[in-house]
Amino acid sequence: MIVPPSIGFSRDFDTCRQLLFQGYSQNWFSSFGRIPSALFSFDVRVRNVIHLAHKGAWRHVQMTPRLHRWFDIARPHLFDQIQYTAFRPEVWAGRIPKINTTRIAQTFARLFSSASARVETQTARLSTRHVLYFRKTAYNWLNFCRRHPPSYDLRGKAIPQTEFGQVYFDHEETLQLAMLLANGKLVLLYWLMVPDDSM
Q1: Over the Cα atoms of the chain, what is R_g?
Q2: DSSP SS3 for 190
Q3: What is the pLDDT of residues 42-91, one digit of tens each?
């Protein structure tokens, strides 16, 4: 199947992913970006996932490579360069990551299985003065900040910021740690492996 990248991470596709994981003994998911070159046509410029599957009596195996981006000159060699890595869907909350090495897959599997507390367990239930803002939609990066960035209308007049949500914490130290984590390399790596190719 050739499907949109949301099959890998969107909640709307949870049931579809479970059907694939349970219905086929082997699944291969290859993700392809659209910049600088697109898989099919320069006019369409859509991101794609190619899914290959096999039914059989073997043990269930899920395979994925890294996200592929390439210049058009590399197109003849694109499929020859795919290197798959095994992943366990239960480790990734039923999602399909884009991983290029077993070492990264094992590292995140250890992190997910050993984490006794997640950031969401440290957030406050009510509004506090310890607030972390985040952009509700992410295109080129994830944006977490302590203050709202300024927002202006077409005439240059300051207007209220409407594109950011907020997360509250009970303590300043917890907020600072969440800020470091949210803007750190670990979360960036997760962002590159799980959501769509919007970068």
Answers
A1: 20
A2: helix
A3: 666 788 999 999 998 778 899 999 999 889 899 899 899 899 999 999 98
Kindly report whether the peptide bond that precedes residue 150 is cis, defined as omega within 30 degrees of 0: no
| Cα–Cα distance, 1 to 163 (Å, whole number) | 35
Instruction: Please count the other Cβ atoms lying within 10 Å of the Cβ belonging to residue 97.
Output: 24
Which pLDDT belongs to residue 139?
67
**Chain centroid to CA 3:** 16
| Rounded distance between C-alpha atoms, residue 91 and residue 2, angstroms | 25
Q: Residue 176: enclosing H or E segment and its boundaries?
A: helix 172-182
pTM, 2 dp: 0.77
Please report, for residues 109, 117, 168, the alpha-carbon distance to residue 53 in angstroms, rounded to integers and kept in the order given. 23, 36, 43
